[in-house]
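Pipeline run #58 for the internal structure catalog. This entry was flagged by the ingest filter as a single-chain record with no existing model, so it goes straight to prediction. Upstream metadata was stripped on purpose; only the residue string is passed forward. Reviewer on rotation: M.T. Logging verbosity set to normal.
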Amino acid sequence: MTSTILAALGAAALILHTAVRLPAALTDLLRACLPLVHAVRDLHAAFNRDDHGLARRDLGDDGSISPPAQPPSNP
């Protein structure tokens, strides 16, 4: 019976020790993933631009460039 209590106390201590270290480990993991997130964002931006610096949303269905919006004229 004493060995069971000691085993339970040891297991509880190990679980608590791991639980205390878990937030720091998750923080380190997220910080390590930041360069990957930035690279994916840059890659996405590069795919959505053509050689002229125009976003794909500026191109029409046939690939033509839509005209720029005209400023309002003052009478």
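catalog note: The helical segments are 2-47.
catalog note: The mean pLDDT is 80.
status: ready for reviewer M.T.
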